[in-house]
Amino acid sequence: MEAFEYRLFQEQDLPSLLRLWEEAGWGVLTEKQWRAWFVDTPQGPALIVVAVNAAGEVVAQEVFMPSRIRIGDKVVRALRVSAPILRENLRGESLRRRDHPVIGLYLAAAEAAAELGFSVVYSLPEYGWLPVFRILERFGVPRFAKATYGCATLRLDDVRSSTAKGPLVARPISEFGAEYDQLWACASESFPIGCGVVRDSGWLSFRNGGRIALEVRHERDGSLVGYTATKKQSGLLADVLARHPEDLTGVIAATHSWMANCDEVTRSLTHLKVMKTTALEAAINKLGFDEEDFKFAFTCNTFDPSLTMEIAPERWYLMPGD
């Protein structure tokens, strides 16, 4: 295989990188979109690693999106790994080779991330990508913690949510303001959230702009109980949070009821889908979700060995949109 240089993205790489994005089948991406998605994030620019050939062309790239993770009573800097993008002629090569771009990209990113002060790296990859993380361990990368989750689905015409929502009402979110910072602070303690992405107002605004984002409030006094963010194309609940664990059932039920009564939603979606985490188990059971033949995957690792036990998957409050 041709030898490549692996390094952090530089501004002069952008035209070549945008061509790679389009040629690899990811669609046309403008410079404006690029900066909105990967530069102007709440936690600063993404860590982007590229593979460059002898002609100076970008032949592969991988994005590591910055976030903040709450671990117990402290907050650390983290990165979410996105799927790598490779030129077509590189995709059939064996991943077991150290000179494969997927290996080179990750090793370069891990070195840079540790130097820049990031503590945790995590991913919600396609289930079929889990073996890649095991292969990385053969090249000196510390072992990744891994977990899989099932999928549950509820038809939008199922009427059970109407009674389960109780006095809660969902409506579109106009702005993720200070109330959402208070919601996160309350949920962090009441669940409690041993490990999880910090869901402050800035993060929520950045992540949920293209989703069906709903606030759920008490009908009586208008107080904010929780929120949801659902993917428009698939009906997957990308994120949900409530002030207290016992409120999750009502928050999801109110979301389901609102979606079921929205013509714009029901023209394109027939089901609400959720990732079957421990946090959502009670709501899934009470609302009568059905099993779907699909598996979600999660992996995480740390550049700080003292955090290894603290980031175990069972400690995470985890959603697909994290």
Write the layout of secondary structure elements.
Elements (H helix, E strand, L loop, with lengths): L4 E4 L5 H10 L7 H8 L8 E6 L5 E14 L2 E8 L3 E2 L14 H15 L4 E4 L6 H7 L8 E11 L4 H5 L3 E5 L5 H13 L4 E3 L3 H7 L4 E7 L5 E7 L6 E6 L5 H13 L2 H4 L4 E5 L5 H7 L2 E13 L20
Parallel strand pairs: 4-6
Antiparallel strand pairs: 1-2, 2-3, 3-4, 3-5, 3-9, 6-14, 7-13, 7-14, 8-10, 10-11, 11-12
Helix pairs in contact: 8-10
What does this structure look like?
The protein has 322 residues and is α+β, with helices and mostly antiparallel strands. Helices cover 28% and strands 30% of the residues. It has ten helices and 14 strands. The strands form two sheets. Strands 1, 2, 3, 4, 5, 6, 7, 9, 13 and 14 form a ten-stranded mixed β-sheet that branches. A four-stranded antiparallel β-sheet has the order 8-10-11-12. β11 (224-230) and β12 form a beta hairpin. α8 packs across α10. The longest helix is centred in the middle third of the chain and has 15 residues, at 101-115. The chain is globular, with a radius of gyration of 21 Å. The two termini are 35 Å apart. The mean pLDDT is 92.
Offer a quick outline of the entry.
By secondary structure, the chain is an alpha+beta fold. The chain has helices spanning 14-23, 31-38, 101-115, 130-136, 160-164, 178-190, 201-207, 248-260, 263-266, 281-287; strands at 5-8, 47-52, 58-71, 74-81, 85-86, 120-123, 145-155, 168-172, 195-197, 212-218, 224-230, 237-242, 271-275, 290-302.
